[in-house]
Amino acid sequence: MYSNKSIAVVIPAYNAEKLIGKVIGTMPEYVDKIVVVDDKSQDKMIEVVEGCQRKQPQRIVLLKNETNEGCGGALAKGYKWVRDNSFDVAVRMDADGQMSPKDMPALLDPIVHNQADYSKGNRLFTGEAYRKIPKVRYYGNAILSLLTKMASGYWHVADSQSGYTAMNRKVLETIDWDKMYKRYGQPNDLLVLLNIYNFHVKDVPVTPVYNIGEKSGIKIHVVVFTISWLLWKRFWWRLKEKYVIRDFHPLVFFYLLGMFLLLASVALFARLVIFWVTKDHIPPINALAWMFSVAIGFQSLFFAMLFDMQYNKERR
Q: Do residues 204 and 275 both lie within one domain?
């Protein structure tokens, strides 16, 4: 128990035999249940978890996916177990040892004191992140964090790829976990889902932990494009769900106008260049139309972002 709240930690795990024992062994005493979800591992991870389970049979739960469903699929299974067994708070930790148990109280405090519905670790708050996180992953994270701000509406949230999170029972019962994105991009997708239901999200500084023997399966050049496409689709889905179906806000028109004009400006600029190269002449109307499209397009986008920030400022 933590502040009279029951705590369950969900650990999605795949081929983590080297570090899962350490993650379980360093779990704080106030954690009531450790729910390890095996995502069809090919190594001896299950044997390691079962060895830990024999020492703490009442505390450790091992769930098994019949097929490899990805991190999001394993998480969904764990979250549904926590929900169905009536725990107050669900914490997510990964099996690679990159999430320090010492940071868990900082994640739990906003939840147990009703200051937020969902808290998320942010490794970028301190200067340590730039030195510790591999540079390719650091810059990829920065790009995805910016895109996630736009897609989710949580403009105050950074380090969107951090999976060190905690949520209250209301979130557990509201989100349809079977509809959450199952692969890399799950933390980004969940933020969009949370915004649809107007949950309060808090960023919490956590310590970046690297070079402890973990092996990342992320191919950053693939993941950035995959998650970017996911966020593009989820962005429009959130606008429809939140500002058209559930409520109405004119920011939708500003976004549509801004993107239409910026796309039109690309075509106008291409036409301008063609005339310049082939005829050594720039049509004045073409130039004015291009300048107008760029100026009004960006202005419309900025207005839409501002409206979105203002609408969601109470969600932080």
A: no
